[in-house]
Amino acid sequence: MESIDTRSLQQLDAAHHLHPFNDNAALAKKGTRILTRGEGCYVWDSEGNQLLDAFAGLWCVNIGYGRRELGEAASRQMTQLAYYNSFFGCTTEPTVRLAAKLAELCPGDLNHAFFSNSGSEANDTILRLVRHYWAVQGEPQKNIVIGRHNGYHGSTVAGASLGGMKGMHKQGGLPIPDIHHIDPPFWFADGGDMDEETYGRHCAQRLEDKILELGADRVAAFIGEPIMGAIGVYIPPKNYWKEIERICRKHDVLLIADEVICGFGRTGEWFAADYFGFQPDIMTLAKGITSGYIPLGAAMFSDRIAKVLHEKGGELAHGYTYSGHPVCAAVALENIRILQDEKIVDTCRTDTGPYLAKKWKQLGEHPLVGEARIAGMVGALELVPSKPSRAFFEDRGRVGQLCRDIALKNGLILRATYDSMLLSPPLVISRAQVDELAEKAWKSLDMTARELGMPTG
Ligand SMILES: *Cc1c(COP(=O)(O)O)cnc(C)c1O
Prior knowledge:
The protein has helices spanning 6-16, 24-30, 56-59, 68-81, 93-105, 119-135, 157-162, 166-169, 187-190, 196-214, 240-250, 272-276, 303-312, 326-341, 344-363, 398-409, 431-451; strands spanning 35-39, 42-45, 50-53, 110-116, 144-148, 179-182, 219-224, 254-258, 282-285, 297-302, 369-375, 378-383, 412-413, 415-417, 420-423. It is an alpha/beta fold. The protein folds into 2 domains: 33-63 and 343-452, Alpha-Beta Complex (Aspartate Aminotransferase, domain 1); 69-341, Aspartate Aminotransferase, domain 2, CATH 3.40.640.10. It has a 7-stranded mixed β-sheet with strand order 4-10-9-8-7-5-6, sandwiched between helices. A 4-stranded mixed β-sheet has the order 1-2-3-13. Strands 11-12-15-14 form a 4-stranded antiparallel β-sheet, covered by helices on one side. The protein starts with 5 loop residues before the first helix and ends in a 6-residue tail after the last helix.
């Protein structure tokens, strides 16, 4: 592996490869890190560095790297039938079996899968089908979808519009019409002296206020990440989603849970809807559905929605060449088999998750950390200039990046959004690896503090 010529690959990369979510000019100067190998919770780069991946790639490698069974499942399916579509009255066995498996796993009556290649495309699908659902029932004006400021629902036109990232909206003239946003729950910045329950109700009320402002006869659906990932792992109060559910039912607004990060065990439950105890009408899946080994997404619909689409929808004028791709479906089925047979989600809920939470909360005692939040195996450390004040650093993002780079030098991959250090390790992380993670994180916090001339831990 170390025989790779890093420098020449970096030059080719700079010359020919536009990186997503990067300042490409700055990256070209600095040189890309080239990853070459993965095993369990570790990855290696082309210079031979071993890194503990506490971010599971991009929130996705739930079963860890290097599981041969997934490669074998792909190889078997490619050899037998590499591709067939689900368009013209056809489909393939793994596609059907995966749809049935998802129906079994998803909470309540989310029994109907529409397949895409990614989370973004699944959300595009949802936007179209939700509007179609109301239109065929004689309510074409009920077409507004409400999302949240700073939410993330992908990078396609619909995904980025449903999301509330201002920087994304600036590029490409988004959001498209009839998408509105409300403020998300983020107690650390916004909760004042409200207790958890009061704050949960306060934030959910923003949805009802928005519905009343727009008129319930105009609002088709509300979409949210149960735990907001990309913006910095905002974990809402426990009662927030129950309240949101109540408000949606009251005004006949469909409830969409974007479970692209939370699904497949991230919270210690199979889905965050189980974790928070609410029932979505629609759910978006991707990432952990294949543990990132191959691209796949799905939108899950309830019986009620499927019934309307069946009986009144006519031909579904929507689909991707690779909707329900048999190789991706076969890999997803094998991934889910491993999650179930090896009781990975259970272990995470009852053993390693609580252990990680304990260690993560201890990192919260570091002078640089204003808050350590965690649910199951997804969390964040909020870096601040002076505890216990909940004020941010003035030039938000600089310290987070500094800490991320220092952690990398210490052999630990964490992501930084502004000054939040984000955690989302493979669900198979062991207690010993949690110890290693916590030790490297503490050391990195110390080194960051020293660099800033702040007190160390
Ligand atoms: C990653 C993500 C998406 C987009 O999925 P892609 O596969 O990158 O298109 C959508 N929603 C959430 C919550 C995500 O984290």
